[in-house]
Amino acid sequence: MADSHPFFSAPHRVAFLPGMLLAILLLAGWSAEMAARVFGLALPLALPAMLAHGFLMLFGFFPLFMTGFLFTAGPRWLNVPPPARGAYLLAPALLVAGLALWMIGAAVGGAWLLAGHLVYGLGFLGVLVIFGRLLLMSAAPDRRHAWAVLAAFSIGALGWAAAAYWLISGDVRGWLWMRDLALWGFLLPVFLTVCHRMLPFFSANALAPYQAWRPGWLLAAMLGGSLAHGVFSIAGWPSWWLDLCLAVLFGYVSWRWRLMAALKVKLLAMLHLSFAWLMLGFALYAWQGWFGGLAWAPLHAVTVGFFLTMMIGFVSRVSLGHSGRPLEAGRALWWLYLAAQWLALARVAADALPAEWRDGMYGLAALGWLLTLAFWGGRFLPVYWRARADGKPG
After folding, report:
1. 89 in a structural domain
2. CA-to-CA separations, 374 to 18, 129, 231, 291, in angstroms, rounded
3. Where are the membrane-spanning stretches (predicted)?
């Protein structure tokens, strides 16, 4: 029977595989758009390319990877049974179907776009409901991280609604609200919550001696800072002082979590190096708020430097561990991760170049990311389709 195939046997498989394929597809499309711009052309789209790019980079593949992770790790956090197979199959399927229709609509317009947005919204709501049910079933003494994730996904749903308003009305303010809600209310809080929960845990397992440090006030400060930055952005208020405080906080956290010691263990180093981007990203936001001149560099330090490289680190770790393979970053995976780091630096630096040079650098960075994600997919896509190497279920 089809449902006996290994692909259907665990929630991370059915979410990570389409997430990885979508990441590759979206980077291919953006590379084509960047290449067209170099020659003074543009792809024929029903939506402005930058606006479509913004929505798809925020909602296109990150939520799929988060869904796979939460349906895998969430039950362990909460000490409850995992979601039923029908539930963990349906939610990612709706997300993928919605995104497919959305991308068709972005190209041809018409009802495809709104239909895709609606189907995607149903999938997103499904993730909220499924994870919320796990949380309500739980009697675990510490459910802070699960509640924080659920709250972040709820704000993500508001971002989806803002995007729906933009698509229906054409009012670009809806897109701007979507961007800030998704960035600072949804994606960054989820990443921060998972880092607060998991990085000290992973470090304690790999480094000795190591005292795990994850006080409750730190989670509140990181999440509060992210939300405050989003509110300031929506309101148009200067946030350089807040961003400077966040840069100092994230630098201190990297030090307390022992970034330098983590470099001895490559798979762990991938997570710590990615987290270090937050200090740089918010330092750039502080500079931009006071002096200007950095264009989109602060944004890409957070979204490319932190989000994308942390995604590679976490997804690689989960994929190795849940496929029955050793939790080790081999030479190929390590060099692929370092390539991602260099590409993130190149993408951030490109925003500081003279305007006439930027499109070419943007195109090279997009192509580099496409190749990096393609090699990453070549490493892990077959893993999701095969049985575990150790013969265990899942």
Report:
1. yes
2. 13, 32, 36, 38
3. 50-74, 86-112, 118-136, 148-168, 174-195, 240-255, 267-287, 299-320, 332-350, 362-385
Contact partners, residue 241, CB within 8 Å, separation at least 6: 286
Residue 46, C-beta contacts closer than 8 angstroms, at least 6 positions apart: 105, 106, 107, 108, 109, 110, 113
**CATH code for the domain of 163:** 1.20.210.10
Assess if residue 48 is contained within a domain.
yes
Q: How many domains does the chain have?
A: 1
Dist. CA 392–CA 322, nearest whole Å: 9
307 secondary structure, DSSP code: I
Cβ atoms of 25 and 382 closer than 8 Å? no
The DSSP H or E segment spanning 225 is helix 216-235
Place of tokens 């190749």: 371
Tell me the pTM: 0.97
Q: What is the distance, to the nearest Å, from the Cα of residue 21 to the centroid of all Cα atoms in its chain?
A: 14
Instruction: Please confirm whether the linkage preceding 209 is cis (ω < 30° from 0).
Output: yes
| Structural contact between residues 365 and 347, judged by C-beta atoms closer than 8 angstroms | yes
Q: Identify the H or E element spanning 382.
A: helix 355-385
Give the tokens for residue 17.
């595989």
- Please, what is the Cα angle at 345 between 205 and 67, to 5 degrees? 50
Please report whether residue 392 resides in a domain.
Answer: no
The yes-or-no verdict on residue 2 having pLDDT over 60 is no
Q: Hey, what are 392's tokens?
A: 């265990």
Angle of helix 188-206 versus helix 62-78 axis, rounded to 10: 50
Mean pLDDT check: name the lowest of 142-146, 166-170, 191-195, 354-358.
354-358
Q: What is the DSSP letter of 10?
A: S
The contacts of residue 231 (CB under 8 Å, 6+ apart) are 237
Nearest alpha carbon to residue 124 among 86, 101, 85, 150: 150
CB within 8 Å of 94: residues ≥ 6 apart: 119, 120, 122, 123, 126
* Segments forming the whole domain that contains residue 344: 2-385
In a domain, 333, yes or no: yes
- Measured CA to CA, the distance from residue 152 to residue 8 in angstroms comes to 27
Choose among 121, 19, 2: nearest CA to 71.
19
Please tell me the distance from the alpha carbon of residue 67 to that of residue 62, in angstroms, as a whole number. Answer: 9
